[in-house]
Design brief:
Elements lengths: L8 H40 L7 H18 L6 H15 L3 E4 L12 E9 L2 H13 L5 E11 L6 E12 L2
Antiparallel strand pairs: 1-2, 2-4, 3-4
């Protein structure tokens, strides 16, 4: 069939190689070249946005987010012994839980930025857990850092009492 064509064989060979190159480009190289161009474009965008400290909108959003996180920890440490303790005692009394002990301020529990305050509650397990849930959602009392349930045997009888120790963490002001 090729022998009957009036075109020289070397032109047919050049045409075949060219056609093969176009097909290879379309099937294999076109997507690679597009991906490479997109990579270059995204790299330029990344380098232009690398300095986020120069964007005041970003800094404002970041400050608002940090303030909202810090608001969880805030409590009036000067009034913690009066107003906050009365709020906590009311929550405990509604669940028939006794605010058993409020230890004096322990300087060991204070750091530069945070103050830990321990409170002891006495009652049954379910009532103590309900009080704990209400304290977690209460505002301006600090954040509950840890909770410890202890079963203590009373010295005078065989009865046992359940004590919950709650450590509140708040920002030192």
């Amino acid at each position: 069939m090729l022998e009957k064509l009036p075109i020289p064989k070397k032109y047919i060979l050049v045409l075949g190689i060219t056609l093969l190159a176009v097909v290879c480009y379309k099937l294999a190289l076109e997507k690679t070249v597009e991906a490479w161009q997109q990579y270059r474009q995204l790299n330029v965008q990344l380098n232009s946005a690398a300095s986020l400290t120069l964007q005041p909108g970003y800094l404002i959003r970041k400050r608002k987010n940090l303030d909202s996180v810090l608001a969880i920890y805030k409590a009036d440490t000067a009034a913690f012994r009066s107003n906050t303790l009365s709020k906590i005692a009311i929550v405990a009394e509604m669940q028939n839980v006794k605010l058993n002990e409020v230890p004096t301020d322990d300087p060991i529990l204070h750091t530069e930025k945070f103050i830990l305050q321990r409170l002891d509650f006495e009652g049954d397990f379910f009532a103590l857990t309900r009080v704990l849930n209400q304290l977690q959602v209460a505002n301006n009392i600090g954040l509950i850092r840890s909770v410890d349930y202890k079963s203590i045997k009373k010295s005078s009888s065989a009865d046992q009492k359940l004590v919950m120790q709650v450590y509140f963490e708040m920002i030192a002001q």
